Amino acid sequence: MIIVLKPGTSEEERERIVGTIEDAGLSPHVLIGKERTVIAVIGDERKLQQQTLSAIPGVEKALPILSPYKLVSREFKKEDTIIDVDGVKIGGGQIVMMAGPCSVETQDLLSGIASEVKAAGASILRGGAFKPRTSPYSFQGLGEEGLEFLAAAKKQTGLPVITEIMDPRDMPMIIKHADIIQIGARNMQNFRLLSEAGKQNKPVMLKRGLSATIKEFLLSAEYILSEGNDQVMLCERGIRTFETATRNTLDLSAIPVLKKLTHLPIIVDPSHAVGKTSLIPAMAKAAVAAGADGLMIEVHSNPMEAFCDGDQAMLPHDFKSLVVDLKRVAAAVDRSI
Ligand code: PEP
Ligand code: MN
User: pTM for the whole thing?
Assistant: First the structure.
């Protein structure tokens, strides 16, 4: 349920309400808004008597949250969440470009790509050090060395970095180097990993599972928020359908659907959605037109030799011209890049 506090409720009164919720064995999540303060109550609400609540000074009303997900819902928080990553605002008016190779390969290659995507307009560098590969015989990523290469590329270019975590045991190593923790499609329902990410004070980007419904996607995000971390962005990266012409099917309608249901920023990854370089620009433009808050695009200076996902890697200069086109699409929908 959501407890709406009366305007002007004192901090002391608020703390008393929080205490009552905790005493009932429930977990309160306080959201101090510009006009109103609300408290989401998570847990078995039967333990909290409705009458007890309305008798507490400061409580205006208690409303049920009808959706199965609570903290991620628009019912709980009306305003869009804006995540600040080293000064880059994700979820505000500006569309954020995240770009870089699928996997970190060498320092020189990564640093070169990082400078090129920065010059082209990217504000976040992507690169995987731990790669979730279908085959155990494929390149699995450089591990910690890859994280160190990312940190060096960040130092050189000033770009914050996003990188994937696959195992909760790697969390200390990942948070040391990453500015955004990426949870990949294959781990969207790895609940232990989600809870661990929820305990960190670091933004998280959660990618939609290969066959996950929007409800499942939002419930996975709820795992992270319920542990206390509300710096979460969602990423639509294509879902499995019967169609084989593309690697996955980009669910563009997920963007307006999610915007309606949640206050969290929405990123779109057209690269993994289509799996072919030539199809990325059209889907990137469509995602911006549909209201995405950011794009994640794979860029490699030598796609033919890439260790991973070369078929969907854009060349830096093609990425640069895509950003020029995207600025025009963004302007048409009253946004900017
Ligand atoms: C990635 O972004 O590197 C990745 C593996 O993507 P996904 O989890 O969407 O397949
Ligand atoms: Mn990839």
Answer: 0.96
